Amino acid sequence: MLKDRKLRVVGAMSGTSLDGVDAAEIVTDGHRIFSFGDSAFLPYDAAQRAVLRGALGKWPEDDVAEVSELIETVHAQVLSRFTEAELIGFHGQTLAHAPQGRGTHQAGDGAVLAEVLGTPVVWDFRSADVQMGGEGAPLAPFYHFALAQRMGATAPLAILNLGGVGNVTWIDPSLPHPHSDGALLAFDTGPANAPINDLMQARRGADCDTDGALAAAGRVDQGAIDGFLQHPYFFRMPPKSLDRDAFTGLVEAVAELPDADAVATLTMACAASVAQGLQACPAPPERILVTGGGRKNPTLMAMLAQVCTVPVAPIEEAGFDGDMLEAQAFAFLAARVANGLPTSAPGTTGVGAPVGGGTLSRPSG
Ligand SMILES: Nc1ncnc2c1ncn2[C@@H]1O[C@H](COP(=O)(O)OP(=O)(O)OP(=O)(O)O)[C@@H](O)[C@H]1O
Ligand SMILES: CC(=O)N[C@H]1[C@@H]2OC[C@@H](O2)[C@@H](O)[C@@H]1O[C@H](C)C(=O)O
């Protein structure tokens, strides 16, 4: 009875690159996307970003009150613009992720947001999957499946998100449901913008390597890449997921390199890990559609085209907005939760059976 309710939902994502909050509205029943609505981006200022950076690695039992309040305040600010939304999908800010260890931690309390905004909020999307033995990430794959259906895809394709961390979804659009056996295979590919941003911050006081300009002027240290690809993560079968700062060895390997060479090497490390990940896909995708901020880095896109054996293009080629895809994904997932549908499956997080994650908090009164 619940399963087909069509809702106007706004999703909000504060990603691992720590650049700000993306928010985007869609109309969906959690199966199909009926239409795309408004979107907004609210960047963190330098002081807010410093608070977030300082909180990375923290768990709920650590002192996270300041960062939670920051997340709730900034989200309330951006989400209050979406006055028509019937439901909110609130991801929060991942501070720590160890699905086989302590769990997964997204800062920010959705119940507080529901009260402040007077709208029901779905949040804590990852915990149930982790509790059921899954990786708790990536969660965008069911939305990627809906996008593939919307574009009328018939052959396998891949959607690659290059945020702070990279993640890919291989999709067989001929299967009926995202939780059909074999419809999806998803996993985190490796580091993407996070180590680049961190190095640019530490060495140049900049937020990122804008347009890949510094990387374009550098030389890739192939020894560092070869060493990086020996990391045990690349020998694990997908589905699998990463914490933001899992690759300390890569950061150490570029520590003594000149700035341009260090950034070029980090940029190639992202591309090389994607190429490595593609080998685990059931069949070569027809093309790789790239979403997330990394698609705006021409040096990274050129390196991807160089090391991948299939065509690589920004997701705009298929008519979608690569800046807002993750926010839309959490709107879509919120609608699935509200409609009692699963949000992850064995092929997306390694969970034993399809599971519905997410807590629905309604405003009182
Ligand atoms: N013009 C550009 N040149 C180079 N890099 C860029 C450019 N625009 C965006 N980026 C990179 O993309 C990042 C933002 O990407 P995105 O918004 O996809 O990340 P996120 O949502 O935080 O990540 P995640 O997918 O890990 O949750 C920026 O921090 C920056 O590193
Ligand atoms: C634990 C966590 O927040 N993971 C993020 C992160 O950022 C990219 C990659 O690592 C992906 O696994 C995930 O985000 C996307 C939105 C996802 O769940 O699909």
Automatic annotation (TrEMBL):
This is Anhydro-N-acetylmuramic acid kinase. ATP binds at G15, T16, S17, L18, D19, G20, V21, D22. Its EC number is 2.7.1.170. GO terms for molecular function: ATP binding; kinase activity; phosphotransferase activity, alcohol group as acceptor. It comes from Thalassorhabdomicrobium marinisediminis. SUPFAM superfamilies: Actin-like ATPase domain (SSF53067). Catalyzes the specific phosphorylation of 1,6-anhydro-N-acetylmuramic acid (anhMurNAc) with the simultaneous cleavage of the 1,6-anhydro ring, generating MurNAc-6-P. Is required for the utilization of anhMurNAc either imported from the medium or derived from its own cell wall murein, and thus plays a role in cell wall recycling. The keyword Transferase applies. Residues 349-359 have a biased composition (Gly residues). The lineage of its organism: Bacteria, Pseudomonadati, Pseudomonadota, Alphaproteobacteria, Rhodobacterales. Keywords: ATP-binding, Carbohydrate metabolism, Kinase, Nucleotide-binding, Transferase. The gene is anmK. Residues 343-365 are annotated as: Disordered. InterPro entries: Anhydro_N_Ac-Mur_kinase, ATPase_NBD. Pathway: Amino-sugar metabolism; 1,6-anhydro-N-acetylmuramate degradation; Cell wall biogenesis; peptidoglycan recycling.
